[in-house]
Design goal:
single chain; alpha+beta; Elongation Factor Tu (Ef-tu), domain 3; 6-stranded antiparallel β-barrel; 20% helix; globular
């Protein structure tokens, strides 16, 4: 298992626009197994950028884009709020077109995570990726 630690940060308010595109929405339900709430929970990693190990790379799945929308790779992960028993299974997105630095993870779920898990900017979180 790979454990990533970080804290919640505000995003650029662009992900929801892209996630609502038909090309992505159709594939989210089919490939991820749920329809994510539009937008991403942005997590700045405290232990540097996340380098995918060989096992994780082999588990990556792909949501295909088109000429206007880039491909998005994804991995399942468990999000936990540090110091709480709150947790939620969801998906880490790795969009090929992004403005985030490599130390920022984009996480999606089928619920609004800030409300459901009582997350705010600077809330400490843990992501568990099962290798």
């Amino acid at each position: 298992m790979t454990v990533l630690k970080g804290y919640v940060i505000s995003g650029m308010n662009k992900a929801s626009k892209f996630m609502e595109q038909k090309i992505y929405m159709d594939q989210f339900k089919e490939k991820i197994g749920f329809t994510p709430i539009p937008g991403t929970l942005n997590i700045k990693l405290t232990n540097g950028e996340y380098i995918l190990n060989k096992t994780a790379i082999n588990k990556l799945q792909e949501i295909k884009g088109d000429e206007n929308h880039g491909n998005v790779y994804f991995l399942s992960a468990l999000l936990k709020k540090e110091g709480s028993n709150k947790k939620k299974l969801g998906t880490i997105l790795f969009p090929m077109k992004t403005q985030h630095k490599k130390d920022t993870i984009e996480f999606v779920a089928d619920v609004y995570l800030r409300k459901t898990m009582n997350l705010h900017d600077n809330s400490k979180v843990i992501l568990e990726i099962y290798d």
